[in-house]
Amino acid sequence: MSDFKAILSNIYQNVSKTNDKGTVATYIPELADIDINNFGIHLRTVNGQHYGIGDFNKPFSIQSISKVLALSKAMELVGESIWKRVDVEPSGNPFNHLSLLEIENGIPRNPLINSGAIVIADILVSSLKNPKQDFLNYVRDITGDTTINFNEDVAYSEKITGFKNYAAANLLKSFNNLNNPVEEVLDFYFHQCSIEMSCEQLTNVFFFLANKGNCLLNKARLTKTQAKRINAIMLTCGFYDEAGEFAFEVGLPGKSGVGGGIVALLPDYFVITTWAPGLNKKGNSKLGMLTLEAFTTKTKLSVF
Ligand code: GLN
Fold first, then answer.
1. Domain hosting residue 167, numbered range
2. Which string of b and e fits 253-270 if b means at least 16 CB within 10 Å?
3. What does the pLDDT look like over 140-181, one tens digit per residue?
4. Is 89 flagged in the annotation as binding?
5. Could you report the predicted ipTM of this complex, rounded to two decimals?
């Protein structure tokens, strides 16, 4: 671990010096107002060591990273029947792409693009008694951290700017792949995207995906096979139209969000989360990608 610590602090110093930090998301004020200089990393190994650097303790908007947690809850609740309603193919398109090819016959290409995540949200709205609160409790219970919360301002801003998400939900509805009212499903979806967590909290919550489905509190959250499936989907679909590039440069299952967070993991080995709000043209954190690329290059640890 002392090695990881030295490697990460060295990478942190180097990557911090990058002049072009990308641009923060501007579609809602809550993200547009974030200081682009925030930069944090947190790593936890399966054998219990952990290390954070920079702004690793500051909560940020997890946005699309939440899609993995929603998928995991849906897998726990309804199992394999998910795959009748969502496919598992990479999309090669931006997260909010809307062509009929993306939602072929009403079946979204995968659960980590918006149309697929909206179908997963529909499954959760159908299966949970108090969907928003139950989902928040699910995320909290994974590590026993009750400080994790929605940001209601973000959820509201998502709602009043979410025209493409309304379009996707309506398209899904027209194909009979949405069982609940559009408003209700999107209210859930906007709230899941608004959850705030720090790098350390995200690393800890995602730990079960690196640990055969067993969370930090040593409880089975998913079976080993289910964890494997989610990791496969993250590897092939976690970065929208940059999933190939992420596999090529970094070589880990991972998920990004437009808040500038990236969670990546090596099964049976470690989980690492980076946060730097400046995004590249594909909507993925610029410094986060650089950090993870340097980390897997220096440690030679990747799924390949
Ligand atoms: N809330 C955003 C949306 O649905 C999530 C985008 C993202 O992180 N890629 O548009």
1. 64-194
2. bbbbbbbbbbbbbbbebb
3. 999 999 999 999 999 999 999 999 999 999 999 999 999 999
4. no
5. 0.91
